[in-house]
## 1
Amino acid sequence: MPPASSAGATPRHLVRLHDLEPSAIDDLIDHAQRLKRRAARADLVGRTIGMLFFRGSLRTRTSFEAAVHQLGGHTINLNASSDFWELEDREGTVMDGKAPEHIKDAARALSHYVNALAIRPAPAGQSWAVDRRDAQIASWARHSAVPVINMESALWHPLQALADMMTLRESLGELKGRRLALVWVHSPEPASLAVPHSLLVPALRAGMDVSVAHPTGFGLDDGVVGEAQEAAARAGTKLAVGGSLEDAVRGADVVYARSWQSLEDYGNTTLAASRRARLSSWRVDRKAMELGRDARFMHAMPVRRNVEVTDEVLDGAQSLVQAQAENRLHTQKALLAMLLKVSGAA
Amino acid sequence: MPPASSAGATPRHLVRLHDLEPSAIDDLIDHAQRLKRRAARADLVGRTIGMLFFRGSLRTRTSFEAAVHQLGGHTINLNASSDFWELEDREGTVMDGKAPEHIKDAARALSHYVNALAIRPAPAGQSWAVDRRDAQIASWARHSAVPVINMESALWHPLQALADMMTLRESLGELKGRRLALVWVHSPEPASLAVPHSLLVPALRAGMDVSVAHPTGFGLDDGVVGEAQEAAARAGTKLAVGGSLEDAVRGADVVYARSWQSLEDYGNTTLAASRRARLSSWRVDRKAMELGRDARFMHAMPVRRNVEVTDEVLDGAQSLVQAQAENRLHTQKALLAMLLKVSGAA
Amino acid sequence: MPPASSAGATPRHLVRLHDLEPSAIDDLIDHAQRLKRRAARADLVGRTIGMLFFRGSLRTRTSFEAAVHQLGGHTINLNASSDFWELEDREGTVMDGKAPEHIKDAARALSHYVNALAIRPAPAGQSWAVDRRDAQIASWARHSAVPVINMESALWHPLQALADMMTLRESLGELKGRRLALVWVHSPEPASLAVPHSLLVPALRAGMDVSVAHPTGFGLDDGVVGEAQEAAARAGTKLAVGGSLEDAVRGADVVYARSWQSLEDYGNTTLAASRRARLSSWRVDRKAMELGRDARFMHAMPVRRNVEVTDEVLDGAQSLVQAQAENRLHTQKALLAMLLKVSGAA
């Protein structure tokens, strides 16, 4: 899993948010805030962004398309279900199997037509050891002549994390010394780990202490936690992993809830469902929130009301979920401006 | 089933056409006619309209997208089949079932991204008592911060009715004293009741007498008929319901054909098919048309040729079906201008 | 199978490339080359192109949408799988079967909304005698009031052939006296015959000699070969059909590979798969290419690497596959300008 770009340089693609330096993230957020106050029309006129969805999307698709349109550009939408086919990502293979085309050829061809490719790959879902390689998004980034934007892979969801960082900054101001509780919550149908994974390093680097709470068997990816621990050590911040929801929330400034899947049961839906069924008490309610320090509530949505979190918390004054959703739009505009080097770029 | 807006005021959303006063409908038609003569470019530049299809569409999707494009705006298209998921519409529920997201949260999030939401919900199709509540479109209208446009729910299809009113006006001029025959016709696969439902009140209010013909077991929704009878009483027009196709067409200025489903067999496809199979004589042909008073023929399409109506009638000089289709474009432009309060609005 | 337009006149639709005179093809290529050098913005502002896909597409959809966008226009995308339904193409039929709508009515209605219709029909796949009639695209062309563009039917893929002609011209300059080897290659899942069919007549008319190589049972459509032989006779060029890959490639300037389906096994997938299984030696590799005269390699993609052609050839300096893909964009712009009669048209 080599980084898509060496840290320090402006990456050509956006595969992981922490491929951007903290200062680059700050610049993006500043630009997004200017765009939020006054919808300045950066110049995507005559530019087309190709969007490839190998899995469904509501918020990401709509906020991304709207960002492009408001900047004057066009989008082209391709759905795996109806528009195209499985693509090969291994190099040098004899393609006598299911995939009739290699990502290499698709990426090169599409690079002639569009100015950037935004991609949501579909992990195979059989083996975490395989899926954690993020081979598809890596193959697109390797072969595309235009910027590739990761719209959520098995490991990373940089667009969500960028909007989350902006929302944290807007709500808390200076992040140094603030405490973020990243808490697992119950759901009959879990989400990917990409959202918690992506926020870890940027939050730690920005000066926050982070506590990750989850039941046994729901640990984050070891490699990602390792990277986060290194980032914490360098930034002088603290990362605590494991333990109860209540312990994590105690004294936190922000409670970020997400129901992610178990890597231990990965690919075994029966076992996974039975493990989750015993964990319905992992839910954020008012009582839990009161353990925090005037704590805000965050969630990337979609959210199962009164399962993951109560209506009261979700609709309460401390809820930042709508700000997170709105900031998807503004941060994606700033990001497009940066990657496509158009006017108004940070 | 409370109205989405009190009659009299300009509604914020468009859920039912008769939430608009007759004079407001006239204004829309006047504006649409100006747009038809000269494709003036009202200003949707920089605006994006989100379109959510929980069921398929050909005419509605294409005419609506074209209307937005010709006004300079963008559309974003979301298909339930490939892009997103079932949404919850009940308030306060514990969401541990199939729907991973509440319309409340989807509507709020999408309101950040787009300037209006055009929605075609999919009725569950099990119970008319449930589906007639139109709970989905009502939930979208309740929670959206931007205008919601109903692209055909279980009960209503206001966009079709608006184009139909324009077509009637263009073809007949003054509508007072004119007679509209709304006739059930045979089809192996029936359509919804939304089209006949939506035209009733606007036509009666505009001064037309309306005869609805249908076989036993194919009555319109009782609540809708009740509303229409009240509207007729207030407008001094006549509404006759039930009886044969021939009786309805006799002396009519317009014959509007539609094969709608039976509410008595609702949710029971086997029974419904067997009931319909006996009714293949309910078809509009030249002989039937000659019972009218130089009668025009209307149909909202899609239409099964030589089953619902003969080629001869459909392709004849008295057929208004292509005018109806074309007027979808112009009336939708006028409607967008009104709801989004852009230049050129009526 | 009458031509969609009489040869000589500029056709209103584009169903087959060879409905265009050689000089008209040359004019299109000249215009495309000017657009390639300098992306002059012809005027599609305010125009909308409807795209109907009854089968999936990656390159065609993306390159076509990008062409429209770069010219300032909009596209509307309709997928058979999610947006609409089977359409009837037979005239005068009693429509009590599966199709709820006639192409006649759909084409007329859509003609009100869009400025052109680009269509990829789905052949039924049961009988070649039926599918070779190309009844769907013919019905769209007959009933549409706006230009119809064939995005690949059972018989023809004119958009690919136009890009191929441009690529040949760019790579070889004068085509007179050049030799094109059109060779069948192995694949577990064959493609349609539309690509080889479409290139035959334009290449022969442009002065090329063409050798078509294929195993027994994989002959092209007899009617198409007959037309091509007539074209060769008139142009004074040679067409050789049948024989080995090696014989065809010997002395060729260009090797064009395609794995097309067998018309003898048409509709019988089991038989077809067993016939193909014995033919895995039909593959283009360096040894085969060296039989040519400094030969270029062409393929319309998608391509199964190391099955149809080796990585070495596909990624080598003689490979024109990316130029073919890129030229889809430029030629489609020139074509749209011609059919819609907008500025900059050839």
## 2
Amino acid sequence: MAGNTFGTLFKVTTFGETHGTSVGCIIDGCPAGLLLSASDIQRELDRRRPGQSTITTQRKESDIVEIHSGVFEGKTTGTPIMLMVKNADARSHDYDHLKDVYRPSHADFTYAKKFGIRDHRGGGRASARETLARVAAGAVAKKILAEQASIEIVAYVERVQDIDSVVDINTITQTDVESTIVRCPDIVAATKMIEHITSVGKQGDSVGGIVRCVIRNTPPGLGEPVFDKVSARLGSAMLSLPAVKGFEIGSGFAGTLKRGSEHNDSFFVEDGTVKTRTNNSGGIQGGISNGEPIHFRVAFKPTSTIAKEQETISSSKKSVLLRASGRHDPCVLPRAVPIVEAMAALTMVDLYLLQKIYG
Amino acid sequence: MAGNTFGTLFKVTTFGETHGTSVGCIIDGCPAGLLLSASDIQRELDRRRPGQSTITTQRKESDIVEIHSGVFEGKTTGTPIMLMVKNADARSHDYDHLKDVYRPSHADFTYAKKFGIRDHRGGGRASARETLARVAAGAVAKKILAEQASIEIVAYVERVQDIDSVVDINTITQTDVESTIVRCPDIVAATKMIEHITSVGKQGDSVGGIVRCVIRNTPPGLGEPVFDKVSARLGSAMLSLPAVKGFEIGSGFAGTLKRGSEHNDSFFVEDGTVKTRTNNSGGIQGGISNGEPIHFRVAFKPTSTIAKEQETISSSKKSVLLRASGRHDPCVLPRAVPIVEAMAALTMVDLYLLQKIYG
Amino acid sequence: MAGNTFGTLFKVTTFGETHGTSVGCIIDGCPAGLLLSASDIQRELDRRRPGQSTITTQRKESDIVEIHSGVFEGKTTGTPIMLMVKNADARSHDYDHLKDVYRPSHADFTYAKKFGIRDHRGGGRASARETLARVAAGAVAKKILAEQASIEIVAYVERVQDIDSVVDINTITQTDVESTIVRCPDIVAATKMIEHITSVGKQGDSVGGIVRCVIRNTPPGLGEPVFDKVSARLGSAMLSLPAVKGFEIGSGFAGTLKRGSEHNDSFFVEDGTVKTRTNNSGGIQGGISNGEPIHFRVAFKPTSTIAKEQETISSSKKSVLLRASGRHDPCVLPRAVPIVEAMAALTMVDLYLLQKIYG
Amino acid sequence: MAGNTFGTLFKVTTFGETHGTSVGCIIDGCPAGLLLSASDIQRELDRRRPGQSTITTQRKESDIVEIHSGVFEGKTTGTPIMLMVKNADARSHDYDHLKDVYRPSHADFTYAKKFGIRDHRGGGRASARETLARVAAGAVAKKILAEQASIEIVAYVERVQDIDSVVDINTITQTDVESTIVRCPDIVAATKMIEHITSVGKQGDSVGGIVRCVIRNTPPGLGEPVFDKVSARLGSAMLSLPAVKGFEIGSGFAGTLKRGSEHNDSFFVEDGTVKTRTNNSGGIQGGISNGEPIHFRVAFKPTSTIAKEQETISSSKKSVLLRASGRHDPCVLPRAVPIVEAMAALTMVDLYLLQKIYG
């Protein structure tokens, strides 16, 4: 209700502010008997970690995960799994000058209006540091999906501002994605993206773009009718991420330019398996998976924190000119890739577990 | 859990198949003391009704709502409101030839795989007739928002296939929208849209497009951090609609082409009120409303049911050529407008009620 | 949230007032493929029906159930099942004199305070007629438990005021229970109970008592740790019934008089099955079923509606003397038996389905 | 769903095993602006702490609470509050001999059957140490109720085995309760209880009893119709506690011995306030508070862990004789008092916040 829980069977409740003592989550509903170690989770956190490359923020945070409960002798016990990452000594005083300023396109003003109080240090709860807990939980979800159902989730940076890439979602692997620091497997595009992000960052500005994600080997039948369609669940998951402004599944907005006769995905049978000739549906029909790859795109706006001078106001409604100091990502997309995968995994594991009841 | 309930405080649970006896819903959580009559609901159902114009399906259904509970002497009592619409005598036998056929891009195959059984008559539960219950419940939500908080919701058809329109979302009214049968207030565009839909329908084909929606007079502070951001909730609501393939809020996908310095919405104060010079945020910052108009776009694919011959398979995995007979919408968008408004109202009323606790 | 939904996987949302047009429910989450006909449900409604014997209210209501959705060609489809019973022509004017009176130990005063409005006709939503929807949904739950897991639920009247019975919960059958109109299978006690209820009714007074229930053939492992223990779930289910003031499982309050060495249930193995020598635990240990019969007791207060004159107040806070006219149950227990069974079934089916995921 | 979350608006999700690194919880939904310090919580934890007196277990655990999030500059921010208590160096090896033994009337067997794996060290998640997290969260709930609504919650030990007490629930204070180590404010009874517990403990045996609780100054109108009655919610809360076998509200089981004319609570008006002459309803009518004190009783069975030799089985289904070593409570009731209060506070704060929406 108060917005910090995701999922209904594999329920993740997150906590923590960027300049508090720690961030983390409780997973309630993880099946018992899953082999789980800190390294399973750490691997994903490392993909999200600040300072990992020249095009991400240069803040150094090691982000070491601790498993506090729910695992006994290397296996999950079916009881709540609490995962926690201690925050490094944060330079909280860096934020003193923001105490009474509402940064443009941040959550400062809206949190102040909603709660009547806000933790101004780095955005507090509204900081993207909150996504760390999602990635930790997502690592567990991914493991269940991979081990129990061979479901694979791969995301990558498809576009940075207007630099687009060409990638085959049917064959792309995480290794391909990890081969460039911008996490775009089209090497030519990746090189341009890296140059552009570097250049924009030097100018004190920022850029956004699009992350694409594919979920392969999903069995038919996942998802629920009406309000819990796979598309609705995935859309909600992605649109809950900081900086996300759009979501489309399958043919998406471009699909609206086609006619029905062009857009419909014809069924055929190959080796006894029902398939579709095209996949404009994005693997989802009537909200339920049909066995084809589920693929979707997520639009991330340019980072709100920039070093350029901006017009804004103080909490006492006075005009203020603001120029961010500090170390920020000129483009969030490379670090967003594991986050998108995590949210996809959290969405799918819930539907996967639910289908065990009714399937 | 099984997908037929929307909302957490103003909870709507829907029921009914297109060729069953009735469709409807229970609203649990409607505040007591609201004046409510059947005509409040009927008005919205009439906007959704088949056969309302030359460009919608010519099926005749009167769709008369019955209020079965929760209203006493013209006022809501705080107890569950059951709304029901009896289905007209349906020509169920029209569907006999579809008993063993999976229509392309419909839910036939996925429902069969999920449940092991399906009601083939007109898609059963997966029929868009299910949205009737959403519109009925949405009418109640709209009334609460309008009367208690002066919140206005207006949607319209922005684009049909590639025919685009120009509309000012700050001033558009429902009267403007209702002035054309295609529900596009740009009269020049509307005329082209109507011609195009008519022409495409005659060819036995279908088209999709984009519905845009604006929510005005929303107070700052609605929405919840992290997973229940307004954007996530609205996105989930829209992506749960039949035929929807994409959702974007504020600048959306186009916003990814801008730099941060162009995209950020500068704050200023006018007559003591905090405003933003641009509204790329779409009225939502950090997931929470900032008082500016909330605006978003919803992509609807072309209708799956077409009269043209299509390749598909039978339930025994044999190839089949299919040609739909019957009376179908060549374009769902005109009838989708009240449905989008209903889902927006259901989303916002939940967040509005929640804010009463914490605001 | 607003209290009209029971269950998390097999979710039942009820609606209706005693003098509205109808009462009923939507079941969301019923597995597909279950054979289900109106007669499966009618049988249970008939056990709850007013006017069924000389010791229940003499109101005549036929209470015919209609299945509005979710069943196709005699089987459930996995979509919502809407069940409805139309209310007979009610003598609403019988209640005109109660419009401004708060009946003692009824919900009149509390509903007026909570909602600022109330339907005074027969208690409106607070009427025990609401339990009809529970019995209808419970019939479906019972069918699933019986057919899929051979789980049996049998309740009976154990005590009426101070008239107690002796019954073996390990062997008692529903046929035994139905053999007397008071639903107590101890014939000697039953005869006394019937006489007592008849006599008390003639005096314009009422009595309460205890319903006992046993759930047999439950597999070990149902229930969830911590907050969703079987005991907590059953307790919540029973305490949500009108007139219920107490619940105890296994040894209950009497168990507090024993020492640990007397109260502990020793394990032993018989024919390869783990059993306990005693069953003070009531089949539940650590909140989870251990395979022994689950048994519990439910305390029903004497009916609040009596023909004797009582002191009370009006809504304008004036003293009033009240004497109920009309036809009321002098003792609700005989009709409470199928209701207790229904709530037990609704509780257990939810835990049974949940265990399919994790078991 | 998986049982570790309590509440719907003020949601508490707990984690931790007795011999893991820590136990704690996340509170999601605490209103912003509440003054909150660790000492507010520590005070309640100290009342629950082992080793606090001669009649509780002599294990020494300091149970120091850490607030990890949701509090900024001494006030709650409306974001999740994570509370954690590190476990002291536990003597896990004390439990090696229990690795393959199912202790009678413990959760050992049922957890093994449910999850296929169990943490045998001190019961793991099923240990009563889990209630520590409830007490921590309950301290926050109590503070909200006291400060915002002057609602008072006082519990005490009413009976130990057959030693009963006489206490006036209308005037009893926490100071009275804390005046004896057994937490019974009737000094004569308390003395007998202490002697009895001491004597039973020396014999290696255990006893149970009854905790009674009163909630005063509750405004009328709290609670929801049908399934979320105050009685159902409180019952569920109490029956979710380890060792609880029964719950009764108001007149409870004893009330079933009265006639309706004796049991009904007549309304009258005093100084403009509506009151009842008796309070058999326990402050709840139709499931909703009427403004009278809410009072209820909770039955705790004798502690399952005893030093006497008991018959049981191993996980390989062999007969075993078991004699507990270690330091255990011969009677849990003195330490159960703050736990009952905590669960009452968690229940009431949820209903209190909900009423802000609809009241």
## 3
Amino acid sequence: MPTKSLEVRLASRPQGEPTLDNFSFATVDLPDPEPGEVLVRNVCISVDPYMRGRMNEGKSYVPPFQIGQAMEGGAIGKVVVSRNEKLPAGTFVQSIYGWREAYVAPAASLKAVDTSVAPPSAYLGILGVTGLTAWVGLLQIARLKHGETVFVSGGAGAVGSAACQIAKMHGGKVLASASSEPKVAFLRDELKVDYAFNYRDGDPLDHLKKGAPDGIHIYFDNTGGPQLEAALAALRSYGRVALCGGIAGYNTPVPGPRNLMLAIGKRLRLEGFIVSDHVGEMPAFLAEAIPALKSGKLTHRESFVDGLEAAPAALLDLLHSGAANIGKMIVRLPE
Amino acid sequence: MPTKSLEVRLASRPQGEPTLDNFSFATVDLPDPEPGEVLVRNVCISVDPYMRGRMNEGKSYVPPFQIGQAMEGGAIGKVVVSRNEKLPAGTFVQSIYGWREAYVAPAASLKAVDTSVAPPSAYLGILGVTGLTAWVGLLQIARLKHGETVFVSGGAGAVGSAACQIAKMHGGKVLASASSEPKVAFLRDELKVDYAFNYRDGDPLDHLKKGAPDGIHIYFDNTGGPQLEAALAALRSYGRVALCGGIAGYNTPVPGPRNLMLAIGKRLRLEGFIVSDHVGEMPAFLAEAIPALKSGKLTHRESFVDGLEAAPAALLDLLHSGAANIGKMIVRLPE
């Protein structure tokens, strides 16, 4: 009897704001694993802002999702049938096969994760690409130095909350913004940032001036839009901007920063990056992150939704800066 | 009998577009030089786009001009009375005392220039801060490598025409834009750039696609505005932007680039710079530029106006991308 797997597919490309109609569900029969392959049942899957870009047609930095095919993305699963000795049944593995309950794949395309260190979901977040993104952006792109002041927009999101903590671990003073009061409370009370604010509450530049009267050295940009413009105004000479995400403009275009030319007089550097260029840094990052997580210096907040059926709504909520979305958004599947 | 000197002063700060009314003229009596000082009669003075910023109140990267005082800036003059043995009468010297016929100053504040190598005016342009700006922007900020494709906006201006030539000397393929047909002809016929276009003629991006079907590696930005937006679209992955000037927005605000977030997926780096941070590189630059100028590999085009009275109109013309303004704008004074 074949193994059945529910999967979430891209049904159509959104025009502007995506809706639930852009997704469809299908149940497929999985083949038996061939030699060298494993059958994996996912336990958690990742929901990320960058997925919005892949729903569009045309070239992004990752190829677009294909209509009628399952949404690709990070997932952690458990090997249930193994025909490869390196990944015996019971092993937890990371894949990029995305939004499906189960799959059969070559063992060589998967990476085992050590669940004695942290729960499986942490490998999608703080110990995964999410954490690495924050680490690379702060240390390699923006070249954070001890004692500098860092502003992180989208600070309560997955990458943002990692960036706030990593900046503090490296001696930074941290200002962070979010889109709701519960998120601001999370930044202030759990992440212990130095100044937290709701970017919808007044002018972001007023907050930056209040939180950093002498200006900021680094802006870790998850949003683009008005917060980027405010950051350009608040940056000190020789400031750096790590351009990581532009969620403000993912669904609808936003104006460009009218004050970009301040970069000349202030000798600012703005640099875009994507984490897939930096996967070679993962061991160096984990060497720092795993002990920090164990000792409690690094925390990881996750927002769970249950069942694959809930994945599309979770993505829409994320793109709306929904109140539910603090930290890493994870879809949890029954084991 | 005291020496008289005519000078051009800032009379008032412009609101938007500057006019001739923002300038005034005055004749002052110069003191006799004290020991260690020299009396210098200027032979040429520099007219530069960055002066527009200094006409405003408030902090720019250089202090604002003071109302009622002479416009500061680069000038080359000849020592006529010397009380310092290092700068005997007849020596040509460079100063930043600006728009005045003559001045008395400490010899230590001046720099002798070698007029056997090039005419005095060249030290305001291709062998001066203008040339250094282009060289630093291309080689140190944008890190031009042999074989790369470079787009220079404002290519017929002083810095732009230096950038076009230096890029070609370093093995670059050069696209350049200008604001009039005579300037485009200059780019094409005299500077021999690979593709020259009038940015007012159609969509700049169409020109960039035509001149560089595989995209550009570097954008040397003298303008900001729509050309920056077009360049962001045309840049290849890992492209670099040297933010040097924003003449498009000096008099009136222009919208920011709506597509700045392309910098993430394309891993672009945008970096602002000002040449005064890099004056230590002048010897290295001149070691390359002087032989190139002598051998004819580097040319310098100048636009002269005669007499200090003509200086304000020359600056206004420059800011209007006036047709007269090809290459370096110089005010020539009678010897």
## 4
Amino acid sequence: MEPLPLVCSRYHAAVELIGRRWNGAILRALLDGPARYAQLREAIPQISDRMLSERLRELETEGLLTRHVAADAPVRVEYQLTGKGRDLEKAIMAIADWATRYVPAPALRDSA
Amino acid sequence: MEPLPLVCSRYHAAVELIGRRWNGAILRALLDGPARYAQLREAIPQISDRMLSERLRELETEGLLTRHVAADAPVRVEYQLTGKGRDLEKAIMAIADWATRYVPAPALRDSA
């Protein structure tokens, strides 16, 4: 039995970071440009405030996005992908293409 | 404040399926060709038997791989990506490219 090559631990870390619950959705939303917290909330309706805050902090720690606070009244907080985050576009769009081809649309799923 | 487009629920399901713990590693290993259970175990050293069996079942249910049992002695069980699974290659390789660029190599991480 031939041994397979070891799966690369760097790829493994990357795929699980992108795929961790909600992260993929947040990254997809921010590919369209910088967004405020409330906009992200609306783009991903099922996410809770606690999860969105936690994931945004994680993605900031990982260097995928930055958080800007504008001294307006009320204070305006905006999130923006870094270069490292934007460079996930090819991977994210490839997943989106695959999903369009293979994941049933919700309407079809609901009527099944 | 402009509303963002809703994040596509089909993309969201896909990214979390690929990124669910161990799934990305198993899919990567099977892109190199069909593999036996023990070969997958060796390609992903940290995975437990329980998790590998559970994830293989999940990926089979999702239609990403098939399980073949050859009536040899001892019985030989082999796993192989379906067309749907193989079509993830572009996405998986884009994540691997990104990881090569942005995720530190383990040796560097250990010495940090």
